[in-house]
Amino acid sequence: MRNRVKRQLRESWTTLLPEIPEGNDYVLIVREGLPEAIEVQGFSWLEERLREVVEKIAVAA
Fold first, then answer.
1. Whole-model pTM?
2. More confident residue, 60 or 32
């Protein structure tokens, strides 16, 4: 399960890289319940949550 979530996060993050401002490092932390949420909500749900994070990053930059 852990490796699957890491792979899904990496894949989603990679697709969003062109939208992420350069010059900073980012750490994605998997909180308790995320693997179960991905299992129930699906991979597209994870991508939507990451897109929200990227939008917040862009506004702050």
1. 0.76
2. 32
